[in-house]
Amino acid sequence: MNLKRKAITGVKWSFVQQFSVQVINFSVQVILARLLMPEMFGLIAMVIVFISIGTALMDGGMTSSLIRTKNPEQVDYSTVFVTNLIVSILIYVVVYLSAPYIAIFYEQEVLTDVIRLLAVSFVIKAFVAVHVAKLTKEMNFKLQMQLQLPSTFISGTVGVTMASIGFGVWSLVWLNLVQAIVFTVQSWVFIPWKPSLIFDKSIFRRHFKFGYKLTIASLIDTIYNDAYRIVIGKFFTPAQVGYFHHADTLRLFPVQQISAVVGKVSYPFFSDLDCDKALKMAYQKLLKLLLIIVIPLMLSLILIAEPGFRFIFGEKWLPAVPYFQILAIVSIFRPVSAYNLNILKVKGRSDVFLILEVLKKIAGVAFLIGGVYFGIIGLVLSFSIFSIVSYVVDMYFGGRKINYEVWEQISDIYPLLKAGFVSFIASFSLKAVLSDLIQSDFLQIITFGGFLIISFYAALYLFCKETFGLIKILSGLKE
After folding, report:
1. Using one digit for the tens of pLDDT, what is the confidence trace for 273-289?
2. For residue 177, which of 260, 395, 434, 469 sits 20 to 30 Å off, Cα-Cα?
């Protein structure tokens, strides 16, 4: 199978995987949101940064190095596996000992046990990180889907059952743990590759040299992004943390799923392209394809946010609506940043990647300090403004590596943004006129959300038929 056909097949299976898994995940989250109070989600949000840090340190960016390595051997995979396992255990010990101090910081005693149990997840993930990297390298997303579906369904069932009988925050903890356990066990049973107890110092140095810079960059990004939850958790109530966390998770949910589908394929695919011209052409097409989906989807969610939250999650989650609407605007541009940064990784410039993250986050701290004086809305706005600024920076440095300047990227996506603006204004006007006549939240979601999506593609057809033609690629009718 040639590289192009392999990538297209990978996208299809990756899409099936993401869609099926996330339908289950979303359904579980809806049920849990109705069963549990926002405070329960807030408690998990307070400690998620420490779990994310542990997971990033466990991997050290070396699985990314495996994926970009031409023809990695058993010694490569096994060296990274052994490293991940040892590091994960050491990090768990640190997190375990630190848990009481984290609980004191937030003044929430229950967090000590929550952190200690939840942190077990990144030790479990260390047993399977290389297995997943190998499947990704081979673009075997069909098997990934077959492993993820049962683990998602079983963990969701456990979480909902525990929540319904009164386990509160522990239902969220065990949901995460069960998912990691079931996925890991299945991976060892059904993935043919098995690690050898081999550790090669030269192999380790090669992968670590590339990966550690990505890890530091990932840590900086994780700490900065979760700094808002830390600040809100320290100065506001767990319920307010829950509202922010829920809004942030939901606004990222559709974008991350769509980006993940293509992202899993694009990194190994881009890594196998030796010509900058071919890389640029592939990236241009990829970016447009993503935004053709992301722009109408996110704009429709912004438009119907209030009836959507009320219908799906219930009245108690309505305070999260303004946070969601502001953050969702920024999510539209997230793929532009993500794939420019992917270019840096593909070109082996993890050093530039790291420097960018350091400089951006230093500036981001200033936005955070400025926003905290204006309450949670001020924090949300400061986070959003900084995100836009950082995306432009990513476009500049990533684009330079393939001669794809910022102005050219903006020019390429302008027809999509124009179609989005026109369709949103038209849909907002329709909503202003008819919202009093349509009392049902469900009918408002269908009517106004559906109208926006249809009007977007109609406007895109009028403004840019060439870009509209890319939609055929999504159905595999054209390569």
Report:
1. 555 666 677 777 777 77
2. 260
